[in-house]
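LAB NOTEBOOK - FOLDING QUEUE
OPERATOR: T.R.
BATCH SIZE: 2
PURPOSE: Compare the predicted structure-token outputs for two unrelated chains run back to back under identical settings.
PRIORITY: normal
REVIEWER: second-year student, initials M.K.

ITEM 1
FIELD SEQUENCE / FIELD STRUCTURE:
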Amino acid sequence: MAHWRFPPGSFDDEPVTLDGTPVLAMSVAGMLVMKERFPRLGHGRARRQKDIAATKTLRGLA
């Protein structure tokens, strides 16, 4: 995943806590870009059904 490039603003500046661990949370806009880019991430696979469904949900939230 090191080759993935996240668009500016994909992550908040401040971490949130998940099970006691501080983590950076991805924004809806960042998730949407990653779902839309899935076929071009270097593995050569088509979009998965779960990515198509998630994209629709994320567009509704954006």
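ITEM 2
FIELD SEQUENCE / FIELD STRUCTURE:
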Amino acid sequence: IADFLQSDTFGQVCQRLWGYFGRRYMTVRCQSQIEEKLRRVIAYAPSLQILTLDLRGNGIGASGVQPLVALKDAPSLHTLTLDLRGNPIAHITDIGYLAVVKEALHRLNLDFRGNSIGASGAQALVALK
């Protein structure tokens, strides 16, 4: 059941049951207004434990991860999955924003497929470990 609870299916199959579980599991697709949506997610679901953010192909660039700092205010969040595929992240110089969020997490999953992060970006990602 734990795998089912973390899937996209759970939130769509039964909204009432999802509510009973305290809105702990959420998947959000962000095309724009990322910071505003994250603040709403945190306010709407203060007991949120697992969050998947689908940010693929929206052109956020390296500094576009800055709004993710708002997630440090989600007290129960322990697992964050970021899908950053197909964004123009050539040099991840602002990866420090992710480091701020990572400190509060047990697990951080990143998907950078389709990005040319280069050597400096790879070093920044290694520093997150």
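REVIEWER COMMENT (ITEM 2): Residues 25-127 form one domain.
FOLLOW-UP: none requested
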